[in-house]
Amino acid sequence: MDHLLLQCPFSRQVWHDIIAWLSLSCTPPSHEPSLLDWWHTARQGTPQSMRKGLASMALLTPWMIRKHRNSCVFEGALPSTQDLVVKIKEEASPWAKAGAAGLRDIIPQTWDVHG
Questions:
Q1: Residue 3 placed within a domain
Q2: 112 within a domain of the structure (yes/no)
Q3: b/e per residue, 17-41, with b = 16+ CB within 10 A?
Q4: Domain range spanning residue 57?
Q5: Per residue in 47-99, pLDDT tens?
Q6: Residue 32: which of 24, 22, 42 has the closest Cα?
Q7: CA–CA separation, 69 vs 72, rounded Å?
Q8: Residue 13 φ then ψ, to 5°
Q9: Is pTM beyond 0.85 here?
Q10: Please, what is the Cα angle at 37 between 28 and 25, to 5 degrees?
Q11: Is residue 88 in a domain?
Q12: How far is 33 from 17, CA to CA, in rounded Å?
């Protein structure tokens, strides 16, 4: 599971793109032993006002990576970091509207899902 969510190049690219999109100051997961270890490190390097949003994205991103992997394995979908990043951006909006802690505060106010 740690390989799928943190260490494989595919997932690392997705994390990089999402963190860049959100303009978070933390680094994407690289060689941390677990998602929790990365989150503790990332949280320390993130301004207080953005930490709840980081926590929400630390749940949303792995969930979407796992869903994408399952689609590839069980439904024959083709792996695509670009498609997955778009889906995460699309999913972030309803999560924010549903009250995901701090997510509304870190999602860029103007963004094109396809950009």
A1: yes
A2: no
A3: bbbebbebebebbeebeebeebbee
A4: 1-105
A5: 999 999 999 999 999 999 999 999 999 999 999 999 999 999 999 999 999 98
A6: 42
A7: 5
A8: -65, -40
A9: yes
A10: 35
A11: yes
A12: 21
Q: How far apart are the first and last CA of the chain?
A: 29
Under a CB-based contact definition with an 8 Å cutoff, are residues 58 and 35 in contact?
yes
The total of structural domains in the chain comes to 1
Question: How much helix, strand and coil, in percent to the nearest 5, is found in the chain?
Answer: 70, 0, 30
Token duo for residue 54: 């980081």
**Dist. CA 104–CA 92, nearest whole Å:** 9
What residue has token string 């969510």? Answer: 5
CB 62 within 8 A of CB 32: no
Rounded Cα distance, 92 and 105, in Å: 11
- Does 111 map to a domain? no
3-state secondary structure (DSSP) of residue 31: coil
